[in-house]
Amino acid sequence: MPQADNPLRGIALTAGACAVFAVADTTSKFLAASLPVIEIQWIRYVVFFGMAAALAARAPGPLRPRNPAAQLVRGLCVTGSSVLFVYGIRRMTMAQATTISFLSPLLITVLSIPLLGEIVGVRRWAAVLAGMVGMLIVVRPGTTGFEPAAVFGVASSCCWALALIITRKIAATDPPRTTIFWSSLIGAAVLTVLLPFDFLSPTWPQFALCLLLGVLSSVGQWLIVLAYRLAPASLLAPFSYTQLPWVTIGGYLVFANLPDQWTLVGASIIIASGLYTAHRERIRAREAS
After folding, report:
1. Could you tell me the residue ranges of all domains in the chain?
2. Which of 76, 209, 246, 251 would bridge 94 by S-S if both were Cys, CB 3.0 to 4.6 A apart?
């Protein structure tokens, strides 16, 4: 059962997860320059599944989901989000790709209307529209600064937003360990089917980095799960933006690139929109209690 009595620890875990994800994303971009994306993600998900299975074995209990269809769709969305993100990050800077991923909380607001039956007021709609403007500033379609790979980033954000919506719907029936287990299993299975179509024999250093990526991604996922058991989502959501400075540092140290002024402007707008959306969520939660 969720515990909301240790917010400081929840915030610390969220910030730690963002730092871990930043290292994982930097590793993904580095590997994507020499290995197929499907192969990178396959090794990542095999490691993820192994860690999830080991954790499930240590805490025995039923892993059968109450809503198998929802778990299947969620697993496909999570896998699609990670694969599409790496396809995008191959051509974009770390800061651009991460900034576009910040659209997910705003997309959740939009998807919550048809999928959760929530009512979205004028203020939250204004925040969503502002966030979309910020995304257009980062992507800059129709200009010489437009990077087609940004389409992969937007699609990745859509998949992740849908996955989080489904997570909300199944949270009352399936414990986190069940959701993590099935997400890892579905991802590993799908990528195993796709692997023969996109495979190169990796060197030992490349294979070691892929294993590291799998461990980092798994640790990040578990830190997020633990954080959201200790504090409400509306409190933790703003701290997900701490990932941006970490990926900016990683992008500079590893790839010698920094975000341009338009990326910074767009990121500021998207983050402000996300913070306001989280603020409205806290107000709604207070009024409902």
Report:
1. 7-288
2. 251
